[in-house]
Design a protein that fits this description.
By secondary structure, this protein is α/β, with parallel strands linked by helices. It has a single domain (about 5-80, about 120-270), classed as Alpha-Beta Barrel (TIM Barrel), CATH 3.20.20.100. The chain is built from nine helices and twelve strands. The protein has helices spanning about 25-40, 55-65, 85, 90-105, 120-135, 155-165, 180-190, 235-245, 255-270, and strands spanning about 5, 10, 15, 45, 70-75, 80, 115, 140-145, 170-180, 195-200, 215-220, 250. The strands form three sheets. It has an eight-stranded parallel β-barrel with strand order 3-4-5-8-9-10-11-12, surrounded by four helices. It has a two-stranded antiparallel sheet with strand order 1-2. Strands 6-7 form a two-stranded antiparallel sheet. α8 links the parallel β11 (about 215-220) and β12.
Length: about 280
């Protein structure tokens, strides 16, 4: 697997997102997916407390304990997980199933209880402490501010808290993850914590408006309909992304190990970027 620099971290060109990891029914299946990613050469693993209401972080912790060093783990704070669903996973699965059925029966479906945002300095510290316990790590490689809806939701006090977390050695690098124009505004305002920028791609648009530099990580590559084009396969969508975005980590997410293997093979064959 070619390796690139995400911020100042050397990681694989393809990264694994764990947003759908909790959709696998057993820990054995989840660990098998993670093992497949590692065997394929993936060293960048992206997670968040919201994913499975901390389940994804805990599964990564089990994986890290077995896999050892050489893995870069990025997690986030800002989108708050459900404490109830985190303690009783059946609650989250029941809500997800009900949402799926309601979407098939109702025009807009039932959305269920939504998450809320908390970008306060107190929550940032609490979240890092909880994530460290879930991951079983002494330090988080990358801590992102998770999808701020507006740049003003992040305060100067929160930025100071992030810098203190870095000074204490609990976080190695910080950054912003979300929409390009919001992450760009925050990166310009707070360059000291913009070590790594992870942004959603804009299908068919090219470029990243507002960013002070090209993004280190991009996500949203498995879209099957890009900017009014005829529907294309997930593989063709990723192929297009690999060509349009030749530098940086391409973050992919899947519940199927074979999809991960195929994604790595495809990107490796296309090459691109400086992988020395």
């Amino acid at each position: 697997m070619p390796r690139i620099a995400a911020g100042r971290l050397e990681v694989s060109r393809v990264g694994l997102g764990t947003a759908s990891l909790h959709h696998l029914a057993s820990s054995r299946a989840r660990q098998r997916l993670l093992d497949t990613a590692l065997a394929s050469g993936i060293t960048y693993y992206d997670t968040a407390p919201l994913y499975g209401n901390e389940l994804a972080e805990r599964e990564l912790g089990l994986f890290i304990a077995r896999a050892g060093s050489g893995i870069c783990v990025a997690t986030k704070f800002g989108l708050v997980p459900s404490a109830l669903a985190g303690r009783f996973p059946i609650v989250g699965y029941t809500q997800a199933a009900f949402r799926k059925v309601s979407r098939a029966l109702l025009p807009h479906g039932w959305q269920g209880p939504g998450f809320h945002r908390d970008y306060s300095p107190v929550y940032a510290v609490q979240r890092v402490e909880s994530s460290l316990r879930n991951l079983g790590c002494e330090a988080i490689d990358i801590l992102y501010v998770h999808e701020p809806d507006i740049a003003s939701s992040v305060s100067d006090e929160t930025i100071e808290a992030l810098l203190r977390l870095k000074a204490r050695g609990l976080v190695r690098f910080t950054g912003f993850a979300g929409q390009s124009h919001i992450c760009g505004e925050l990166a310009h305002r707070y360059p000291a914590v913009a070590d790594v920028l992870q942004v959603e791609i804009l299908p068919g648009k090219g470029g990243f408006p507002g960013l002070p530099r090209p993004p280190d990580v991009t996500y949203g590559h498995f879209r099957v309909n890009r900017a009014g084009d005829l529907p294309i396969s997930a593989e063709d969508s990723l192929r297009r992304s690999a060509i349009e975005y030749p530098d940086g980590v391409l973050l992919v997410s899947s519940r199927r190990p074979e999809r991960i293997v195929e994604s790595v093979r495809l990107v490796r064959e296309l090459g691109g970027g400086d992988f020395s």
